[in-house]
Design a protein that fits this description.
Elements lengths: L5 E6 L7 H10 L1 E5 L8 H15 L6 E2 L2 E3 L2 E2 L12 H10 L1 H22 L29 H17 L5 E5 L15 E2 L3 H6 L3 H5 L5 E4 L3 E2 L12 H9 L6 E6 L9 H10 L4 E3 L5 H10 L5 H12 L8 H14 L4
């Protein structure tokens, strides 16, 4: 096993880490693991899976991420875990009563963070800071707080801080903004033709406001004002825009490289992400041959990336709360709000 982890997250097809997968991960040492619904069945099983991955790579603090935003994107959605509301619902509450909405969102984020850290999960890849417009692809929809950049940033702050208080890594997405995309980047390559001035005045603003967030996930969206050919996640030009114009200095991880906005073989996609200057490629599912191919194309984390990861980790809190009680309090806040 190489001393420095690979700049790669891997995924699994099943809820159990096989002996073959264990051996592969021990040999290749990917930085982290991404788990989804197919991998998360109940708390004891999830804890065993996470611990076994960390045993394989020989790092007790190896990051294990999932998607846990609330609404339709929450992979901890089986019977043992409570269902969390979408960001659009919190936005609706906040439009009626801003302070109550922010309080509910902070409580919900703490509850979600506490639930994940109890399982051993490192992050739920949240919050979504994309704006939403009438033309926005449905892939965003209720995952967004709305179209007002300042309002989105204000609510996004509650998520970032609530997660960090409980030791959970916030990952803002999809930098520099998926909201103007009219196509789903899971299936097609979206192109955004807005001017640089428009993007800087709108889509970029929530990311600028929350540029202290430890991690950010990069969109598979073409921004023609900067790069007419390549999606942001594989564009050296957009990488520089994120670092320079948005001023983001944290960890940059790609969105899942299986998404059809990218082209080429799996190893080529890993190479494209890392060649563009991003810290980590996300390979969120796949079988052993795919994981092996991705690992061969990856390279060790850079020294700078390791420092960014360590800096983010150092800022995490250790607040312990009863996440079910906190979730219940959130529901009470919704139920007790009088609709004007």
């Amino acid at each position: 096993m190489s001393k420095t982890p690979l700049a790669l997250f891997v995924g699994l097809p099943n809820p159990v880490l096989s002996d073959e997968e264990f051996a592969l991960f021990r040999e290749t040492n990917p930085l982290g693991l991404f788990v989804g619904r197919r991998n998360l069945k109940d708390p004891d099983q999830a804890k065993r899976l996470i611990a076994r991955f960390r045993e394989a790579v020989g790092r007790d603090d190896a990051p294990v991420f999932t998607d846990q935003e609330g609404g339709r994107v929450q992979h901890l959605d089986a019977g043992p875990w409570p269902r969390f509301r979408s960001f659009a619902q919190f936005a609706e509450l906040a439009h009626r009563d801003l302070e109550r909405g922010k309080r509910a969102l902070r409580l919900s984020s703490r509850a979600m963070g506490a639930m994940m850290t109890e399982l051993g999960l490192s992050s739920g890849c949240s919050p979504v800071l994309d704006l939403v417009f009438p033309t926005t692809s449905d892939v965003i929809g209720e995952r967004s707080f709305g179209a007002d950049p300042d309002f989105v940033a204000a609510l996004g702050r509650e998520v970032v801080d609530g997660l960090m208080e409980t030791g959970c890594i916030p990952v803002m997405k999809h930098i520099p903004g998926h909201g103007r995309a009219t196509l789903d980047s899971h299936k097609e390559r979206p192109v955004v033709d807005a001017s640089a001035e428009t993007l800087q005045a709108t889509d970029f603003k929530p990311f600028v406001a929350l540029k202290d967030t430890p991690w950010a996930m990069v969109a598979h969206v073409v921004f023609s004002a900067y790069d007419r050919e390549l999606p942001a996640s594989i564009s050296p030009v957009v990488h520089d825009v994120i670092r320079r114009d948005i001023g983001y200095e944290g960890v940059l991880i790609s969105d899942c490289i299986f998404m059809e906005s990218l082209r080429g073989s799996l190893p080529e996609r890993v190479t494209q992400v890392l060649d563009a200057g991003f810290d980590i490629a996300l390979h969120s599912h796949g079988d052993i041959p795919e994981s092996e191919a991705a690992a061969k194309a990856a390279r060790p984390l850079t020294d700078v990336a390791q420092k960014r990861i360590a800096a983010g980790k150092a800022r995490l809190g250790n607040l312990k709360i009863d996440y079910r009680a906190a979730h219940a309090e959130v529901e009470e806040l919704f139920q007790s709000t009088v609709v004007a």
